[in-house]
Design goal:
With about 775 residues, this protein is α+β, with helices and mostly antiparallel strands. Helices cover about 30% and strands about 25% of the residues. The relative contact order is 0.12.
């Protein structure tokens, strides 16, 4: 009996679809519970002159109104730089920045009081673009560089060169459950915070510091989240502190749940980037040299921007070997909410630039872009060292490229696309194959650790607690399968407990696609400690003096709900009976396991080292159709092939791949953040912000995985699957660029991310206008 490798349903699947799964706002209100509202700045940048609270205090049901002056501990926090205020003091730096906390007996009373708070702010001109930030020397953190070879010399001597500026916009995480927390105080001023967070340890730490408590006086609990995608790695902190502050100040439970509009307006997004690039290449399209200057829009405060930017730099070359390369990067401070983690964590912004450049090389040379990409792909025995010096071991990318080319009928379809575009006067088709090589580990070394608590009970059942937080990605189900197999039990005998800092301390956030790797490995280590003790005891039970069989723990097996000695096939003890026997013999049936990822040693100062334990790789082929008159984009077909090692749960993995791809597709085609000139977000609801829906997914969607049993270093031979498929959504964007290029064969179109209908239409119009003004440069117009 094995549970690993089976598509066992998500442990909360039934609860999700029936509505029985509890989220923060589903918790039954306790007696005396208060409802909390935040009052945010209506100005993007300015100085606070006065806060009028008298009218708000007179609203019936209002219990407390708190400002920065009421915070007993430090008012600033941050995962890297502690520079962000919990509540604004003298200045405000973005629209929605929290200034006042209101607590009332009802939501209605809290909302009415919020509308009566008057904050007088002397407005200053906000910095809203990267260009403005450059002009004002407005930075976050230091500039960084990764460099190999002699890129300047190689650029000068390259037969061909191209350069440009690439723009990629932000993206809203759009989790279904908004930021939410409930704080429960006790009689001694301590507090338990139930929070929708990817990072219970950080929530515990910041709540404790802000309230002037020790971390031992704060417990953070997370049962599940209604989505997160990175948006709850750091940004769950302020709502949690607000609820905890009210709870400790009033001695009453306090609940805060942001509405969707406030959540979207006040929280950080995926970082927008403005990147300049220079590429040198030869007559075949081989990249000889590259220089990238990544400019990231960090928003008002640092948050995780430096780590996001670092991952951008580490993925700037994506799946391609470039001998002479220079990667420079800087974060710019603007007056938007602090931008934060988002699935891919800077990887998409880096990969998009090189994919754009390779498509432009193919257009310039009149070659199929697949040939250009395959030519530049990392090798298996040579050309397999990254710009930062990490050897790409076990590289299956060439195999994935070649297999997907065959199974997707790429060559025949490319010919059909060209034929279609030569005949149609109303539509254009595009085709592109793009890869992903995504590094798995936190690039901050100390975060690569996990711990797990496993308790075996006398009826043969098991409880498992880890630092992993469940946000719908299925990590609990995977760990449940792993633990059940360790003890040879049916999966129903293992229960995953809610994540709590009381049971799993000093944990890393559920992020970086490493959650199953870290916490699953820790759980295995805990199980094996228990099994070692049980095997010692079992060996004594199976010893047989008459037959001369001595006790041997190495011969003890845990399988199919029984414990046995392989030397005595006829003898076995039911696991539930044995655990009761072991307890009566005073055998310890509980253990804490700890795991630290080995060999992670990147030095960000030198830009050299091994930031990743391994890489998850894959490719996708996308075929699209573009309406020449409206810019409407239809994704006709996607073929996707990935190497994710040996799958712990094929059903969950497949869901993650499909969901990640569609979210990536949304990022590059539809999800556009629109702000007015004052820095106010305009696209702050499902009616104005366009995420993919069922009509946007590919008409044909083929997902497959290669066989790979060589990844023996990781838990059960698996590879991370959470983030890598999102980057394959770039194939849709590149296919759109490929389609547009047919409108003026030989000319290179400019296309930003996201390629909305409007952006596509503007790109087509600009290309056709340039052709009309200078037709001599056009090689061929098939229309």
């Amino acid at each position: 009996m094995s549970n690993v490798g089976k598509p066992i349903p998500h442990d909360s699947a039934r609860g999700h679809v029936t509505g029985q799964a509890d989220y923060i706002d589903d918790f039954t209100p306790m007696k005396g519970e208060l409802f909390v509202e935040l009052v945010g700045s209506r100005i993007a940048r300015g100085e606070i002159k006065q806060i009028q609270l008298e009218s708000a205090r007179r609203v019936p049901g209002v219990v407390a109104i708190l400002t920065a002056e009421d915070i007993p501990g430090p008012n600033h926090f941050g995962p890297i730089f502690a520079e962000e205020p919990v509540l604004a003091e003298a200045t405000v730096h973005y629209v929605g920045q929290p200034v006042v906390v209101i607590a009332a007996e009802s939501r209605d009373a809290a909302a009415r009081a919020r509308n009566l708070v008057e904050i007088e702010i002397e407005t200053k001109t906000p910095i809203l673009t990267i260009d403005d930030a450059v002009a004002h020397d407005s930075f976050i953190g230091p500039s960084r560089q990764i460099r190999r070879g002699e890129p300047d010399r190689a650029l000068r001597t390259s037969p061909h060169r191209l350069s440009g500026t690439f723009i990629s916009g932000g993206q809203e995480q759009f989790y279904l459950e908004s930021q939410a927390s409930i704080a429960y105080p006790d009689e001694e001023g301590r507090v338990v915070v139930h929070c929708s967070t990817q990072n219970p340890t950080e929530t515990q730490q910041v709540v404790a510091e802000t309230l002037g408590l020790g971390q031992h006086e704060v417990v953070c609990v997370c049962r599940r989240m209604g989505g997160a995608f990175g948006g709850k790695e750091t940004q769950a902190v302020i709502p949690s502190v607000a609820a905890a502050l009210v709870a400790v100040q009033t001695g009453r439970p306090a609940r805060i749940v942001l509405n969707k509009d406030d959540d979207m307006c006040w929280t950080g997004k995926r970082h927008p980037y403005q990147t300049t690039y220079q590429i040198g290449y030869d007559d075949q399209g081989r990249v000889l040299a590259a220089k990238f200057d990544f400019h990231s829009n960090g928003g008002a405060f640092a948050d995780l921007s430096t780590s996001v930017l670092e991952r951008t730099m580490l993925h700037a070359e994506n799946a391609y070997y470039i001998q002479d390369i220079e990667i420079n990067a800087r974060i710019f401070r603007t007056n938007f909410p602090p931008n934060t983690a988002f699935r891919g964590f800077g990887g998409p912004q880096g990969m998009a630039v090189i994919e754009n450049a390779l498509e432009e090389i193919a257009i310039e040379l009149g070659e199929d872009s697949l040939d250009v990409r395959r030519l530049n792909c990392y090798g298996t025995t040579d050309r397999n060292v990254t710009p930062y010096g990490q050897v790409l071991r076990g590289n299956r990318l060439p195999e994935i490229f070649d297999q997907l080319e065959r199974t997707s009928d790429y060559r025949q379809r490319a010919a059909a696309v060209a034929q279609f575009n030569g005949a149609s006067r109303t539509h254009l088709k595009g085709l592109a194959m793009t890869p992903v090589k995504f590094g798995i580990s936190f690039t901050t070394a100390f975060l690569n650790q996990g711990n797990a608590l496993v308790n075996v009970y006398t009826d043969g059942t098991v409880q498992v607690s880890t630092g992993a937080t469940e946000m719908g990605q299925g990590v609990n189900t995977k760990i449940q399968q792993i633990v059940a197999d360790e003890f040879g039990l049916e999966i129903g005998h293992v229960r995953m407990m809610e994540t709590s800092t009381e049971k799993n301390h000093n944990t890393s956030p559920s992020a970086a696609s490493a959650t199953t790797d870290l916490n699953g490995a820790a759980a295995i280590r805990a199980c094996r400690q228990i099994k070692e003790r049980m095997a010692q005891f079992a060996a004594r039970q199976f010893a047989d003096d008459e037959s001369g069989i001595a006790g041997d723990p190495q011969s003890v097996r845990f399988a199919d709900g029984f414990i046995s000695d392989v030397r005595q096939p006829g003898q076995s003890i039911a696991f539930s009976d044995f655990t009761n026997m072991a307890r009566r013999a005073r055998v310890d049936l509980g253990a804490r396991g700890f795991y630290a990822t080995p060999g992670v040693d990147f030095n960000r100062e030198t830009g050299r080292g091994n930031p990743f334990f391994y890489f998850t790789t894959g490719c996708a082929v996308a075929e699209v159709t573009v309406d020449r008159f409206t810019g409407d984009l239809v994704v006709d077909r996607v073929d996707l092939l990935m190497d994710i090692g040996r799958q712990i749960n094929p059903g969950i993995d497949r869901g993650q791949v499909i969901g990640g791809f569609v979210q990536g597709m949304g990022y590059v085609t539809a999800e556009e953040l629109k702000y007015d000139e004052s820095g106010q977000l305009l696209s702050h609801s499902p009616t104005t912000y366009k995420i993919p829906n069922v009509t946007d997914i590919p008409r044909a969607f083929n997902v497959d995985f290669i066989e790979n049993h060589e990844n023996a270093r990781n838990v059960r031979g698996s590879k991370a699957v959470g983030e890598p498929p999102l980057m394959l959504g770039l194939s849709v964007w590149v296919a759109a660029k490929n389609a547009i290029s047919y409108s003026a064969q030989g000319r290179v179109p400019t296309l930003r991310i996201p390629a909305t209908n409007e952006e596509i239409l503007m790109s087509l119009t600009a290309l056709e206008k340039a052709t009309a003004e200078d037709p001599a440069e056009t090689v061929q117009d098939p229309i």
